[in-house]
Amino acid sequence: MDQNCIFCKIAAGDIPSATIYEDEEFRVILDLGPASHGHALILSKEHAQDVCVLPERLRAKVLSLAARIGAAMKQSLGCAGFNLVQNNGRPAGQTVFHFHMHVIPRYEDGPDMVNWTPGTTNPEELEALAEKLHAALEL
Ligand code: 5GP
Ligand code: ZN
Questions:
Q1: Does ligand 1 lie within 6 Å of residue 94's CB atom?
Q2: Which among 2, 62, 69, 87 could bridge 93 via Cys, Cβ 3.0 to 4.6 Å?
């Protein structure tokens, strides 16, 4: 636990939160600044700055937990779908440096969010990029 980390304190229950699920490894809370009605955050109980340093055991579990939360949102909130968003690093929009995954309910005719304008590329650029990334993965 990091004494200066607000999500460590929330995950441990030292700071109260609207908790919708808890087990030994995760606490799922409602976001205080929701992007949509029911926006939830899956917090690891163990402190890890981002997904790159989250223990493999937790990485493997978080996606199935997110799927369960999303299914419960569809059933209980009537959303038509949901986004899973997980920011790593300040330029990626991360503001709290303790691993968390957003589960954001999406409603028919709801506001557009989690979106981007598609850029352009070409086959040569894609091939060069793919080679570079492939090489990095083999390291
Ligand atoms: P990030 O931008 O790091 O991916 O997401 C941080 C999220 O945490 C934001 O959506 C923000 O509204 C939420 N948040 C920040 N502080 C608190 C808090 O004290 N309690 C709750 N429930 N949510 C918080
Ligand atoms: Zn923490």
A1: yes
A2: 87
Atom index in ligand 1 nearest the CA of residue 33 equals: 12
Mean pLDDT for the chain overall: 96
Full-model pTM: 0.95
Which letter does DSSP use for residue 58 in this model?
H
Across-strand partners of 28?
21, 42
Do the Cβ atoms of 39 and 48 come closer than 8 Å? no
What separation in Å is there between the alpha carbon of 137 and the centre of ligand 2?
Answer: 28
Give pLDDT tens digits for 87-115.
Answer: 999 999 999 999 999 999 999 989 888 88
Task: Give 101's strand partners.
Answer: 42
Pairing type for strands 26-30 and 81-85 reads unpaired
Burial of 102 (0-12, 13-18, 19+ CB in 10 A): buried
* Residue pLDDT, tens place only, 33-68: 999 999 999 999 999 999 999 999 999 999 999 999
Residue with tokens 């080679």: 131
93 touches ligand 1 (CB under 6 Å): yes
